[in-house]
Design brief:
The complex is a heterotrimer.
Chain A (H helix, E strand, L loop, with lengths): L11 H15 L1 H7 L2 H18 L1 H4 L40 H37 L1 H16 L2 H17 L7 H14 L2 H16 L2 H8 L4 H9 L4 H24 L11 H9 L8 H28 L5
Helix pairs in contact in A: 2-14, 3-5, 3-14, 5-6, 5-8, 5-9, 5-12, 5-13, 5-14, 6-9, 7-8, 9-12, 10-11, 12-13, 12-14, 13-14
Chain B lengths: L12 E14 L2 E14 L3 E5 L6 H8 L8 E9 L2 E2 L5 H10 L1 E4 L3 H4 L6 H12 L4 H14 L5 H4 L9 H13 L5 E5 L7 H18 L2 E6 L2 H7 L2 E6 L2 E7 H7 L3 H8 L39 H5 L5 E2 L4 E2 L34
Parallel strand pairs in B: 3-8, 3-9, 6-7, 7-8
Antiparallel strand pairs in B: 1-2, 1-4, 4-5, 9-10, 10-12, 11-12
Chain C lengths: L4 E13 L4 H5 L6 E13 L3 E5 L6 H9 L6 E6 L2 E2 L8 H6 E4 L13 H11 L6 H14 L16 H13 L5 E5 L7 H18 L2 E6 L2 H7 L2 E6 L2 E7 H6 L4 H9 L38 H5 L5 E2 L7 E2 L2 H4 L15
Parallel strand pairs in C: 3-8, 3-9, 6-7, 7-8
Antiparallel strand pairs in C: 1-2, 1-4, 4-5, 9-10, 10-12, 11-12
Helix pairs in contact in C: 4-5, 4-6, 5-6, 6-7
Chain lengths: 323, 357, 343
């Protein structure tokens, strides 16, 4: 109704931020984090990936996707520590002379972008549907939840494949260019749409719990509109499990993307993601250039493992006393 | 041990808890939950253990029967039952004592009954575990017990499952289970709290009658002073992890020695008389881990003196009961004539109630 | 009475349809109906406390929630100052502002993610009571002090307070819109006794200072006795007796009221013996025919089993009303006050 004036009194934004930081560092979550070396390692690895992906342009020793810098003379070089290797190509090069380490950096960036965007997409969709269906109930809730049930019976990779195929079929005849950027959007949509049901389910049941609590009743008694109650009261109290699922889902999304790319319906080789790199590389596996596919694969495993460990820890740390 | 040899006429002490300390190791250091509990139950007596939530009454009950949830553990003190020390016994030995000689009744009857087995099976199994009886004899005893706790048509209800009983009936079954092996002592932790008010009375009645008939002693743990007033012979009042007053129920309810018990009883509205304002104790009980040195009640006490803040009082003979309060010590300042410097502080501050915590 | 009544309730009822498993619905079974509240009528004058007392599941909380507009009534009418506010559209901002609610569980009635300051400010902002943020802050400080907390407590979160303090915050929020009527749903049932006394005293002080009207819901007869001017005893969705507080305790008329007074443990009853075998509360889904209390009633006869008694004036001096055939027919008279006849 009325615009909500900021609480102008007391410590000010900086003070609040400091206070929140202090409380955060002193919280049970932070404590269980510090005490768990595996989780700390996983967090560091994840951060390194984020860092590498964000600053790939500066960190990568070569620019692998600029054909003018490539020379076929450097093609199929083994990793630096093997005979015939070259220290300027630490992890070797592929058949076109692209530096594997650099392609991994750029590939991770793409994988993470797709993964993150897909997770955000499914969170927005799933949480929105979950909160509203839990709050309003009735036929709307039944419809949403049955739709979620139906979708959950299909493996998510199948859903993504279907969406991907349909999208390509639809746009194939139009003017819209089905280039690499377009493929990324389709992928994000396909992966995102396959994951919303779990958010919707979790958030719906959390909403049912929160809705029955009296602080919601108190807001209803004074006539706060439903959308505002959902947004300001219910939603923040359902975010704990969403954070957990989101983290684990990020790993899943990265894998789904890699799978789709490996199957050839994902990101084209002109702008390879980790999955594309593995697919392209495996053709050389039997001709002896194992490094072309092994290192991207290891990079993928490490990323997924780290994110998964973080997700598992978050679930354990948040679940017993969700406060 | 205590009192057992002195006289056969005096009721023997059945349960004796001495200076019991229970703690919980946490990452912020060792939390002291019980700070030295002293209490005893004589044979055939009903001891009411009362206190507000967080006072440690349930923990005391759990510690006595060895059911503390780890990592909470007994740090110090002794628990004597029927002349033998039972704290520190192995899990197996304690389990044997628990079923056969100490019966246990918890607040929620549903947690005490296994939903997958019939009432009859649970009763006969318990009976046969603890008594040397054949199947038929055990069943006969089960029917007798159900009869005793007032379950109509007991013989025909043996095949029923817990969910077929109402809450009050379930709690009756739990009482029957606790009485199975003719225990000497029953520890009942909030046995009526989960029940409807008009059902509470029935359950209290059953418990009281049976224990009298069987000569079973009861340690009745509850926050409900009304239940205590009607059921207990003697009352131990707990505050911040200690027993601070111990006396007969009539004295504790009407004429308590400790300022806390006195205030507590006064603050309960009764049907008998109607007052404009209820007498109230200001503030709230200190949280576990934030118990002040000296008397734990000192910050809320209208009679507080310097002595109270500095040193923790032991139990001493009060006016009518024994109480852990310096007022009854020769060291109390007023006793020597000179009024303490802070005399009368706090009585005026009753309005600023909840500023602490 | 009708012209001075702040709140009037007439034949208020709400029936909940219980969800039925799909399989049973497919078999054509009709869903069962829970008549949580089945026709209650009363009025509360300004500055008066009316208590509704009864055991769990009798529908007393539902009465408060119906009046608060949290459920839509199946039938009946709610009026504030003579204005019908039964329908949601009739609950204008001006009406909503005049009626607030305090809840039982201090843990669940405050949003754990909000600062106390924002919790209390929510009604102020919703109703546009304060002109600006400064004024809002000033009012919040004032409310906190009014309920015995400090202004600085506003910066904290609910979990940093004890149960009693949280209930104070709840009261502050209820006072924020400057209401006339506060619906109190078991406000002290979750609190320890010494804290309960503090909250009850606070509520009475506020009533004296601000001229508040309370609808007080409780299962605790002693608390009700302490707080009320008038008391309604509820059993399975209906009022069985409504009387002035003093009269109800001095001479309870309905057999259920007598049973309650007889059985509830009380501090003044040390050493009392009892063997009250009075049966169980029946399920409200399938209530007994006729008078719902007849299976537990020592005075029940054929008429009680078949015909439902209505609330009728019992002929007492204070306009007490009782829904009981036995009382009406003179088969029982008001029992003596409790305690005097007991061993």
């Amino acid at each position: 109704m009325t615009a909500r004036p900021a609480t102008g009194t007391a410590p000010g934004i900086a003070g609040r931020l400091l206070g929140a930081l202090y409380r955060g560092a002193d919280s049970d979550l932070a404590y269980s984090f510090r005490r768990n070396p595996v989780v700390v390692t996983a967090a560091i690895v994840t951060l390194l990936y984020f860092f590498g992906a964000a600053f790939a342009d500066w960190l990568a020793p070569h620019t692998p996707f600029d054909p003018s810098t490539l020379s076929l003379g450097d093609a199929e070089k083994p990793p630096a520590w093997i005979e015939g290797g070259d220290w300027s190509y630490v992890l070797g090069t592929d058949n076109q002379g692209r530096d594997i380490f650099s392609t991994i950096l750029y590939g991770s960036r793409l994988s993470l972008i797709v993964g993150f965007s897909a997770v955000i997409f499914s969170v927005v969709l799933g949480v929105g549907l979950g909160v509203t269906s839990g709050y309003f109930g009735g036929w709307y809730e039944s419809t949403v939840m049955r739709a979620a049930d139906v979708q959950l019976t299909l493996p998510s990779i199948l859903v993504a494949l279907m969406v991907d195929g349909v999208a390509r079929a639809i746009f194939a005849g139009t003017d819209i260019k089905t280039d690499a950027t377009f493929a990324i959007y389709v992928l994000i949509f396909a992966i995102g749409i396959s994951a919303w049901p779990q958010y919707a389910r979790v958030v719906r049941s959390a909403t049912l719990v929160e809705k029955s609590k009296d602080y919601v009743a108190a807001a209803r008694v004074i006539g706060i509109p439903s959308w505002r109650i959902m947004l300001r009261h219910v939603l923040p109290n359902t975010m704990g499990p969403v954070l957990v699922i989101g983290t684990i889902d990020l790993a899943l999304a990265v894998i789904t993307e890699a799978t789709l790319s490996f199957l050839g319906v994902g990101i084209p080789p002109t702008q390879p993601s980790l999955g594309t790199l593995i697919r392209v590389g495996q053709e050389f596996l039997f001709s002896g250039q194992w490094w072309i596919t092994l290192f991207p694969a290891l990079a993928l495993v490490l990323l997924v493992l780290a994110v998964n460990l973080l997700g598992d820890w978050l679930r354990d740390a948040l679940n017993p006393k969700l406060r | 041990m205590t009192g057992g040899t002195t006289s056969a006429l005096l009721p023997r002490t059945l349960l004796d808890v001495r200076d019991l300390k229970v703690g919980l190791p946490t990452r912020r250091g060792h939390l002291s939950i019980l700070n030295g509990v002293d209490l005893h139950v004589k044979e055939g007596e009903v001891l009411g253990v009362v206190g507000e939530s967080g006072a440690g009454k349930s923990i005391t009950g759990l510690a006595v029967i060895g059911l503390l949830e780890p990592p909470a553990r007994i740090d110090d003190g002794e628990v004597w039952f029927d002349g033998a020390r039972i704290d520190g016994l192995s899990g197996d030995a304690l389990r044997r004592i628990r079923g056969a000689r100490i019966g246990v009744i918890f607040q929620d009857p549903l947690t005490s009954l296994n939903p997958l087995y019939t009432i009859g099976f649970q009763l006969t199994e318990t009976i046969r575990t603890h008594m040397d009886l054949g199947a038929d004899a055990a069943e006969k005893r089960a029917v007798e017990l159900l009869d005793e706790v007032g379950i109509p048509a007991a013989a025909s209800r043996l095949g029923a499952y817990p969910h077929e009983f109402s809450g009050g009936m379930r709690q009756r079954v739990v009482i029957a289970l606790a009485l199975c092996a003719n225990p000497r002592l029953i520890i009942a932790d909030e046995p009526t709290t989960a029940l409807d008010v008009s059902i509470q009375a029935q359950i209290i009645g059953v418990l009281k009658r049976l224990c009298r008939e069987h000569g079973t002693a009861v340690m009745l743990i509850t926050h409900d002073m009304g239940v205590i007033a009607e059921t207990a012979d003697r009352v131990a009042v707990m505050y911040a992890g200690r027993v601070i007053e111990d006396g007969t129920v009539a004295e504790v309810v009407r004429n308590a020695s400790h300022p806390y018990s006195h205030g507590l009883m006064g603050s309960i509205p009764t049907i008998g008389e109607r007052v404009g304002r209820l007498p109230q104790i200001r503030g709230a009980m200190p949280r576990v881990g934030a118990v002040p040195v000296g008397c734990a009640f000192a910050p809320r006490c209208p009679e507080v003196r310097d002595l109270c803040r500095a040193e923790r009082p032991a139990m001493m003979d009060g006016r009518t009961t024994s109480a852990a309060c310096w007022q009854y010590s020769p060291r109390w300042p007023d006793r020597s004539g000179a009024a303490g410097p802070e005399a009368g502080i706090g009585t005026a501050g009753a309005e600023s109630a909840a500023a602490d915590g | 009475m009708a012209e001075t009544a702040l709140l009037e309730v007439e034949d208020l009822a709400v029936h909940f349809r219980l969800p039925l498993p799909v399989a049973e619905r497919a078999m054509g079974r009709r869903p069962k109906v829970l008549k949580a509240v089945d026709g209650v009528s009363f009025a509360i004058g300004k500055g008066v406390t009316l208590s509704v007392v009864g055991e769990s599941g009798c529908g007393k909380s539902t009465v408060a929630r119906l009046i608060a507009g949290l459920y839509r009534p199946t039938r009946g009418r709610v009026a504030i100052d003579g204005r019908d506010v039964t329908a949601a559209k009739d609950r204008t901002r001006a009406i909503r502002r005049r009626l607030t609610m305090i809840f039982q569980d201090p843990q669940a009635s405050l949003n754990p993610r909000w600062r106390v300051r924002d919790i209390i400010a929510e009604p102020i902002r919703a109703f546009g009571i304060a002109g600006d943020a400064r004024e809002t802050g000033r009012q919040v400080d004032g409310l906190l002090e009014q309920v015995g907390l400090a202004g600085a407590d506003g910066e904290k979160y609910p979990h940093e307070f004890s149960g009693g303090q949280r209930q104070r915050i709840s009261i502050a929020r209820a006072l924020a819109s400057k209401p006339d009527l506060i619906l109190c749903d078991e406000p002290t049932s979750a609190l320890d006794v010494s804290v309960q006394a503090q909250i009850l005293n606070l509520m009475r002080d506020l009533q004296d200072d601000l001229g508040l009207t309370y609808l007080f819901i409780s299962h605790d007869l002693a608390v009700v006795h302490h707080m009320s001017d008038r008391i309604a005893v509820m059993y399975l969705g209906r009022f069985v007796e409504v009387a002035d507080a003093a009269a109800l305790f001095a001479a309870p008329q309905h057999p259920y009221t007598q049973l309650l007074l007889e059985t509830i443990p009380d501090l003044g009853m040390t050493g009392r013996d009892r063997e009250a075998v009075a049966g169980e509360v029946p399920s409200p889904i399938d209530p007994p025919s006729g008078c719902a209390f007849h299976p537990r009633c020592p005075h029940a006869n054929e008429r009680c089993r078949t015909e439902r008694p209505e609330l009728r004036t019992a002929g007492g001096p204070d306009g007490a009303t009782v829904a009981c055939h036995a009382v009406e027919e003179g088969r029982i008279v008001g029992a003596p006050a409790r305690g005097t006849a007991d061993g």
